[in-house]
Amino acid sequence: MPSRVLVFTWLVFLFGHYGWAIWPIPRSLLTGTSPVKLSPDFVINLQGLSNPPADLASAISRTQSRLHSDSLERLVLGRGSGDAQAVEGAHLLSSLTASLQHGSPVRSIAEETTLAFDDKSESYELFIPDDRAVATLVANSTLGLLRGLTTFEQLWYDYKGTKYTLEAPIQIHDEPAFPHRGFSFDTSRNFFPVADIHRTLDAMSWVKLSILYWHIIDSQSFPLEVGAFPELSQKGAYSPEEIYTREDVNNIVAYANERGIDVIMELDTPGHTTAISAAHPEHIACAAKSPWSKYASEPPAGQLRIASPSTLSFARTLFSSVASALPGTMMSSGGDEVNLPCWEEDEETMADLVQRNITIADALNEFVQTVQGVIKEHGKTPFIKSDMVLTHKVPVVNDTVVVVWQTSEDAAAVANISLRFIHQPSNYFYLDCGAGEWLGNDILGNSWCDPFKTWQRAYSFDPYANLTTDQYALVLGGQMPLWSEQSSAENLDPIVWPRLAAGAEVFWTGSTLPDGSPRLGMNATSGTNALARLHELRYRLVDRGVKAIALQPKWCVLRPGECDLDA
Amino acid sequence: MPSRVLVFTWLVFLFGHYGWAIWPIPRSLLTGTSPVKLSPDFVINLQGLSNPPADLASAISRTQSRLHSDSLERLVLGRGSGDAQAVEGAHLLSSLTASLQHGSPVRSIAEETTLAFDDKSESYELFIPDDRAVATLVANSTLGLLRGLTTFEQLWYDYKGTKYTLEAPIQIHDEPAFPHRGFSFDTSRNFFPVADIHRTLDAMSWVKLSILYWHIIDSQSFPLEVGAFPELSQKGAYSPEEIYTREDVNNIVAYANERGIDVIMELDTPGHTTAISAAHPEHIACAAKSPWSKYASEPPAGQLRIASPSTLSFARTLFSSVASALPGTMMSSGGDEVNLPCWEEDEETMADLVQRNITIADALNEFVQTVQGVIKEHGKTPFIKSDMVLTHKVPVVNDTVVVVWQTSEDAAAVANISLRFIHQPSNYFYLDCGAGEWLGNDILGNSWCDPFKTWQRAYSFDPYANLTTDQYALVLGGQMPLWSEQSSAENLDPIVWPRLAAGAEVFWTGSTLPDGSPRLGMNATSGTNALARLHELRYRLVDRGVKAIALQPKWCVLRPGECDLDA
């Protein structure tokens, strides 16, 4: 490490606004005070890889392209003009040399991305000198190189076409605190075109998110083309145009994997399945039964007939058909919000229970173990929603991952039964909260999870809250969900961005900042710094075509700290 | 009226979902049950006007174009396919004949739009026969014809390129309950490009809104090019690209006026003026003074020096320069949220007060009467914010219109001092509420006007609440505002639409539905009907390129009533 790397960034932040636009903030970051600019013929060279994986070459090409097209000026008064003189005399960087550490396996980014968490490395080291022409990026995986390229892209501001930083030399050692950093995306309540999912994946990759948790089907529509049951989407999708064909799914999964994002598909069962009744009414109890509020958490009611051997067989084939078509080592059977009256008042279910001499609880256990068994047969780790293990006490296999969603308080309860889990608490992370009631005739109603979850709220989340230190290893990370009752392609970007980036930093950087200080909390300075960096990310997202919302008046953006609560 | 017009629409609504996509609902609407489709060579003919105003010809041309390009299928299960047979055998409509009533003056739409409320007519009569080839539209103004064309466009569904209705004959007599039906648009906290304002004006015209209340400047930026003081925008705008030049303003006003929308520009004074200090620091007290919370309702602090003769002269010239460049008969001097400590601690202001031997209250009265006097000198009616007359008891001239904003409760207080007013209550109409606190370091804060104002909330507003019948005439209408601290072009459409349409119907259709029943309230059927019509409007907006949010899952949209609270 060069001796001129003098200033620890966190100290710099205490004394003024420096324009770091890196989000999430690296685990270790040292910066200097020298200006460096990219040479007009700046190139990224891959060293020691005579035949690099195609998706790595593509990633480098995308970075090259964005280094050229990004036009974010520094968010200070006067914008880039104040830096003109420094830029003029800045040291010239001619290239970035990217290489794998000696002895590292050479695999595609997609292959690295779909490895099990324990086998996956996202770490990288990046160095931007202020006295030499070549920057260096080293990692022990192509996925790590991708993460490093993503950081490299965020270092540069534009001023009249010149790309520069004022804070060389820059030394970064980085790796995520948690492997699971996700976005849970509901494409059933309303449909989202493939192009919108692509754009979302791009933006996710820019903040180093690692998981698209795809809640692809629900009671309202069944947009997934299933090889074994094409009739499910033919009859259960909103329209022929609102189906993810097998080609679409392959395309989306490949697009994600090449960008460092693994896809966990959730087939939410046995509740949230009414849309199956369009093609297979024989498998659904209480389908669209009225009043829905007695039989479901939202309209329409409908659950798989868990006691029916025929339905069990259908579910087994459904999961097998979907699992066999997906790469990756994880898949979810969902399991939230099952409703007992739906089954208790269903003649067929009651007849099955009597005939087989079992209870609803027995049938639920059998159902969950069946579908989770299919997931495991396909070499994947099963995910399940927390109410299934906490409320319904369904026994699950040891390596199951629990999605803790009802409240952040549930995390400790899941830890106490020694299951691994991810955080998705409705009281911190739900992107859809606060938009008002969507049910008809509820004139003054608000959303069930009011209020709106601000980026600050999400950012203040502590992944280790209420856990003992020996339970820390159970935390795999977390994800922020968008439930789409009131969302569609029209508001996707503004409802997701930049708030989703708050979750990205929580789970990349961890429960504290690199210097050990709280990420947010009542620490005014760190709060302002996060906001300043998040503004930069937001403006960069907009610059790249993602319609992220404004977090403050631009007056405040250009004057960090002056719009604080007590400024 | 033909005898086959049998069914009063409101009764139809009681028995099933009919696909009326008319929003706002006309004051009188009779419908039949016959299918009618537009001939492939359908034309709109203007009768009795050999040399029609250019903006009327353009409006007809836009309607023709939208009749062709609109592709909204009926929002029912199966969409248009269920109507195929009816469409096949439908009666063919070859033309719409539009004409002015005998003796009506022939003026451009823009001229009609900018008339004083008392001189303005927006009424029209529209008849779609089921047994003849020609529909008729009659009005006594070109503005009325525009309103009728707007309704005509909403009557038609698309099925494979054929445009049809199932409910001919259709007889409509329509006119607004209130002349002022507005959108208040803040373009200072964040800037909005002209193209976004154009698109917003288009959508406003489609729901017959009549007023763009343009809150163009504020403390954060001064994007308005002022003839007398070009330095205000040169130094006070966020950037040279974020200025509304005089050409832009003329363009926006003309674009609005041709679409039936008058523009009321608000120069919010004497508070909310910090941005003036960039060019004229001598006129601003407590500019960006810390802590802002002591001197202003939000950062940055700053108010005009109301006691300074030089500042009074500046304000007079500012208002005169802006007023003289604008058509229309209304303009606002704002006046909300003035802060006394800002002046009390300002040396210059205190010196002026002492020298002139007046109080702050005297100076405030003088300031308001000065700027309102300039507005009146230019033949315009002055608007003012309600706290200026209720809190500060500033005497205003009789024809002043008060913008009631703090709470709906204030309307009665304004009525009690016999001033005319418009409704803009924060507890019903603020589009920005509920998005969380935007101040830095307020981690768990929510917006001051939480919760989110749903369309239902806005729609449930009663313009006559708490008024005596002889005060009804004081109500000119109302408007829904977007304050843009957390908004920009990126989320403009989804935060505004379709919620703004709720206000449009409240003030077009009035305090009750045409049959006298409450517009909303706990009446399940009318609530559902409004939602069904609002879905249709929302889908039509999206079809026309306005990114309006989804109000419900599409499953609910296609099944009116099934997602009601107690369905």
Describe the 3D structure.
The structure is a homodimer of 567-residue chains. Chain A has 567 residues and is α/β, with parallel strands linked by helices. Chain A folds into 2 domains: 7-175, Chitobiase/beta-hexosaminidase domain 2-like (Chitobiase, domain 2, 2-Layer Sandwich); 180-510, Glycosidases (TIM Barrel), CATH 3.20.20. Chain A is 34% helix and 18% strand. Chain A is built from 21 helices and 17 strands. Chain A has helices spanning 9-15, 54-69, 84-88, 109-113, 142-154, 194-206, 230-236, 246-258, 292-295, 309-324, 340-344, 347-356, 360-377, 386-390, 410-416, 426-429, 455-459, 492-496, 499-509, 524-543, 554-557; strands spanning 7-8, 28-47, 91-100, 124-128, 134-139, 157-159, 162-174, 180-186, 211-215, 262-266, 284-285, 303-304, 330-332, 381-385, 401-404, 420-423, 475-482. In chain A, the strands form 3 sheets. In chain A, strands 8-9-10-13-14-15-16-17 form an 8-stranded parallel beta barrel, surrounded by 4 helices. The first copy, chain A, has a 5-stranded mixed beta barrel with strand order 2-3-5-4-7. Chain A has a two-stranded antiparallel ribbon with strand order 11-12. In chain A, strand 14 (381-385), helix 14 (386-390) and strand 15 form a beta-alpha-beta unit. In chain A, helix 2 (54-69) runs parallel beside helix 5, helix 6 (194-206) packs parallel to helix 8 (246-258) and helix 10 packs parallel to helix 13. In chain A, 57% of the residues are buried.
